[in-house]
């Protein structure tokens, strides 16, 4: 089975090259054009992604995340959300790796089969790194007006938090 998986990508690439050759497509020239466009797009996105990485690092290192979680804890408890899940809910829109690390911390502390572990799993799987996605997609096309995008995306993240808690409690807490 491992041999099939290892051979799948080279076989697929070979079939694509063969199909292009059969159809008369200048495969190598087309590849070069695509590679040039990819490099241009990467360079265009670099400042935005660098700024996002610096911002996430500053939020985590400054203690701002803990401060915001402390301020939101009474509100979260009031609506039935465990305060321990708040850092994950706040990190996930910013940093996928930070959210994964925090999810693993929750697993180690409470166990993956605990209610908190299940909520963390559902939340991590049902949300997006919102600001990264916005930076990549909108940065690639040069679109700068995010009037509706950011609030709608954050509303989706908030909805995912609430529904993660509700679904785990109703279906398998």
TrEMBL record:
Is Membrane among the key words of this record?
Answer: yes
Q: What are the UniProt keywords, alphabetically?
A: Membrane, Transmembrane, Transmembrane helix
Q: Which residues form the Nucleoside transporter/FeoB GTPase Gate domain?
A: 43-143
The Gene Ontology CC terms held by the record are: plasma membrane
Pfam families membership: Gate (PF07670)
**Signal sequence extent:** none
Q: Which sequence ranges are marked TM in the entry? A: 48-73, 116-139, 146-171
List the protein's name.
Spore maturation protein
Q: Which organism is it from?
A: Candidatus Acutalibacter pullicola
């Amino acid at each position: 089975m491992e041999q099939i998986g290892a051979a799948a990508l080279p076989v697929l690439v070979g079939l694509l090259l063969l199909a292009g050759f059969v159809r008369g497509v200048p495969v190598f020239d087309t590849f070069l054009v695509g590679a040039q466009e990819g490099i241009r797009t990467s360079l265009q996105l670099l400042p935005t992604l660098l700024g996002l990485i610096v911002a996430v690092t500053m939020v985590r290192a400054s203690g701002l995340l803990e401060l915001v979680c402390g301020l939101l804890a009474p509100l979260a408890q009031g609506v039935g959300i465990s305060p321990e899940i708040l850092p994950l809910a706040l990190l996930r829109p910013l940093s996928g790796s930070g959210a994964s690390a925090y999810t693993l911390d929750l697993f180690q502390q409470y166990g993956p089969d605990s209610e908190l572990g299940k909520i963390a799993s559902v939340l991590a799987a049902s949300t997006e790194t919102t600001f990264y996605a916005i930076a990549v997609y909108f940065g690639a096309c040069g679109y700068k007006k995010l009037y509706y995008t950011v609030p709608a995306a954050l509303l989706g993240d908030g909805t995912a938090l609430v529904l993660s808690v509700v679904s785990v409690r109703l279906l398998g807490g």
